[in-house]
Amino acid sequence: MWRKGLKVAGAIGLSLALIVGCSNGGNGGDQSEGGGLSGNLIAVGSSAMQPLVEEAAAKFMEENSGVNITVQGGGSGAGLSAAMDGSANIGNSDVFAEEKDGIDSEKVEDHQVFVVGMGPVVHPEVGVDELTQEQLIDIFTGEVKNWKEVGGKDQEIVLVNRPESSGTRATFAKFALDNNEEFRGKGGIEEDSSGTVQKIVGETPGAIGYLAFSYFNDKVTPLKLDGVEPTDENVYSGEWYVWAYQHMYTNKDSQSKELEQAFIDYILSDEIQESLIPELGYIPVNKMEVERDPEGKVSEKK
């Protein structure tokens, strides 16, 4: 974790240098002589969003040869901080800025670009494929420590937690655990990267963690909650309540607004919303039948 922090700090430092360079040169999103966009962008934050942003950035750069986009993980907290202090152009986040301590939401602009469903996943041999929300809370708060207590095999439960900076953790704790604090006992596992969580849960007997739908694969078993399957269709309707907007935050005083907006508009385009987003396991924002505000209140979409 410490090393990851250094890597993100290094990336942010690099981005600051690039941004300063753009500002000094006055070309943060300028039109090049050939008529295309040019400049540098740094996007930092949510690891749940990272695969999609990386793919979209690669396609965007193919169409705009004068643009260079660097995408880094680090968690939603790092993304929001970087957008707020201007050390990155785009802060990717699973949570609203208003939900994160230490973030001044007045300094950043919210762009909701797609949606992701999240859910609990277990090692395929724990003997359980469904829990009630109460059972899930009991497991993650340490009240239940063996799978046989919830209908599974006689196997100790191994919790795979996420760090405080994780937007996936914030969404899961708020909606799946009803704001209960996760138990972090001796020998517990904490991992930031969604890809590594997927690997650990798939390889560790008795393990349970939580992932974005985009990280579900045949190595882990997604759990139904209160009889509801974790599917895109159940997210559209709000029946599956563990989901989050995927935000791309920009600094309101940025000097690279044109280039930032061009890349965000590209992700909101039909080209990305109708192809790349579902291909990678995410949900187009225009498919949602409900909407959610920063306080977590859900209502029918207007």
Automatic annotation (TrEMBL):
Belongs to the PstS family. GO terms for biological process: phosphate ion transport. Keywords: Cell membrane, Lipoprotein, Membrane, Palmitate, Phosphate transport, Signal, Transport. It comes from Desmospora activa DSM 45169. It comes from the Bacteria. It holds the Pfam family PBP_like_2. GO terms for cellular component: plasma membrane. Its main location: membrane. Transmembrane segments: none annotated. InterPro entries: PBP_domain (IPR024370), Phos-bd (IPR011862), Phosphate_ABC_transporter (IPR050811). CDD domains: PBP2_phosphate_like_1 (cd13653). GO terms for molecular function: phosphate ion binding. SUPFAM superfamilies: Periplasmic binding protein-like II. The keyword Oxidoreductase does not apply. The keyword Signal applies. The complex is composed of two ATP-binding proteins (PstB), two transmembrane proteins (PstC and PstA) and a solute-binding protein (PstS). This is Phosphate-binding protein.
